[in-house]
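Lab manual, section 2.4: Encoding a predicted structure.

Procedure: take the sequence of the chain (645 residues), apply the prediction step described in section 2.3, and record the output as structure tokens. A sample record is shown.
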Amino acid sequence: MWFDRVYSTHKVFIPFAIVFVFLVVFTFIMWMVWSKMEPSLSGDIDDEHLKAVVHVWLGALSETEMSEWLQLFIVLVGPMFFSAFLSSTLSNILTNRAASHRKGYLHYYFCNHVLILGGSKEAVGILNSIAVGGKLKMDVVILTNRDAEQLWDELVPMLPNKRWKKRLMIYHGERNMEKALRYCQAELASAIYITGEDGEADRDSINVDSWKQLRGWREKKATALAQCYLLLERNASAYLFNALPKEDTLTMETTIMNRLDSVAQQLLIGDGAVPKDFTLDRGAMEEKSDLHVHLVVVGMTQMGYALATMAAHLCHYPNFKEEEATPKRTVITFIDPAADEGKKFFKGRYPGLFELSHSTYMEAGKRSAKSGPVEKYGDFLDVEWEFVKGSVVDEWVCDMLRDWRSDKKQLLTLAFCGLEAERNLAQALYLPREFYRYVDEKSSLDLRDPLIWVYQPDNSALIETAYEEVSRYANLRPFGTMTESFDPQTEKRVEAAKRINYLYMNVGKPYRGMPEVKELDAMWRELSYAEKLSNFYSANSIHTKLRCVGDLSKPIEEPLLTTLAKLEHARWNMEKLLVGFSALPMLDRKHLNEKGTKEEIDRLKKKDFKHKDIAPYDGDYGIPESSKKYDKAIVKNMLDVIYPQ
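Recorded output:
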């Protein structure tokens, strides 16, 4: 067993060492035997005995007096060893090396490469993202604890470009072990993606452990800066990072991403990949519009929560007037058979949000009393919530869907976010017929046609075929496919967030355009995760603002500047509430704005997680001018954020 294990190793020198040792030992033994049988004249062991043994060893009869039986024995062993044993050794070495390469046990030298820690399906999306960035010449190393050969078979057919096959290398190992990071030359990588493996129960925990190991290893060995993207699966995992201090080092800049948030932002931002007609607002939410956005999320799952919260971040429109009797708020509705429990979970997760929000609960066709904001805080949020306990197959739910469909003042979107892809599709297809066109109708969509999104994490080919070939399903779209879940615009979004940070940090200073990349990067590395995330959300919302105001060929001046600043502040209010902050009562806000000290305000933010600027934009209990200048600085220069010179 010991010999088999050693001899079949993928390390080339070991089989050769065995052959060499066997050759030397056998030759020495035969030398000794022949010397004893035929001593030299001097009685010593001399070179003539050795030469005779080697001569016979090579397959020729010796001219010495060596015993014929001994010569026969040496000749038999010699050809057998060299022609059989040595040949099989060479064959075994090559076979083992090829197998070791396929299994990911051979390691090579790479520098300035892309390192992907984990063999999940997101790797395909990452490769596609790299291709979008024009980096096809970079080598890519994937480290996985799966069968590397099997991963090769899965990945190669899905590669976005055939050239990746020549640039891709798969290693076998654990992503949270320093030894594996050393094999991958993690200290020499220019970009690192920590994705994890498909189906891991503790995927997020191992990813974070891998991130910590990686950060420590690079601090010891790396000499250059690398971009690191840490992917987390669950919303709660990303939520915990809000409390982290600055985590960047001189050798690694970290961007923390939630896979489901990445799916949601690709669907909702509307910055090119999704046409304007397939956004929640359809490009129709101008200041004088009488419409409001209504997103219906079917399934209170992790995907459903991600989609709803991302919509709450983005859906702020200029036609919301809080002073009106019935302001035009964005409505986000959850439908789920367990909506009563889901409501408790969701409200418990965001207590500060629901102190300020309108919300409704419905069960068996009965609407509960609408709960509004706590009176002492004021009523100024532009998003409200509904929780419906039921299923889209329930008749009373279908009636409610028909009423929403026929309401000419709402832009309706349904998103089926259940855990089972087949069930999501079945529920979408069995909607009331009013939600789809008749076969002979035109395929282009009207403004008020409902959009129907179906979560399909494994494969979206069936739905794609339906809307491409059958005009009846022109408003049906899949989303969330695992291989496309990594946002290909990630790098561009990071750069936009850095420019938002520059505007925020330089409020009050003359603006002369964006600085060099090095300066933006240096400022970015000083931020905590929560501060980075805030800049991300602000940059992502610019496309929604642009759809609301149309072409901005001229510089942004009053009154448009104030209109956009109000939208930015409404977005900021929602962001702070969703990351765990709470508002202060109106009287306390007014007191702090007039007489509050910086120490008192900082203590409330850092220790109590309360912020005085979670407030309306205008009015006696609104934010002060010193806070408004931040919103105005961002929106005034927002075109420079997404369209840098």
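Check your result against the sample. The mean pLDDT is 86.
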